[in-house]
Specification:
This protein is an all-beta fold. Helices cover 0% and strands 48% of the residues. 31% of the residues are buried.
Length: 114
Amino acid sequence: QVQLVESGGGLVQPGGSLRLSCVASRTVFSLDAWSWYRQAPGKQRELLAGITRDGISNYIDSVKGRFTISRDNPNNTVYLQMNSLKPEDTAVYYCNRNPFPVAWGPGTQVTVSS
């Protein structure tokens, strides 16, 4: 079955940047669309951004202009470049296939705090 492993999170000050990575194994990565999600404490998981197999991206309004999703098909990896981070971006970040999601990976914690 498909396995997802996210990485790249950490503690960053407001205004800082992070680049998240998600490696998908046991899948024909290039044929699928992928998305990034996040879940803050006490909140539901929310969809942030998506990228089609042709590289077309879309974002929710709260991250548009700050976050950039990209993909590296030969390495089965989807990235999320996050700039101008805010405390409200603090959450566990996940990737998944979208549509037809698979089992969630462990996620990577992002904490934005001074």
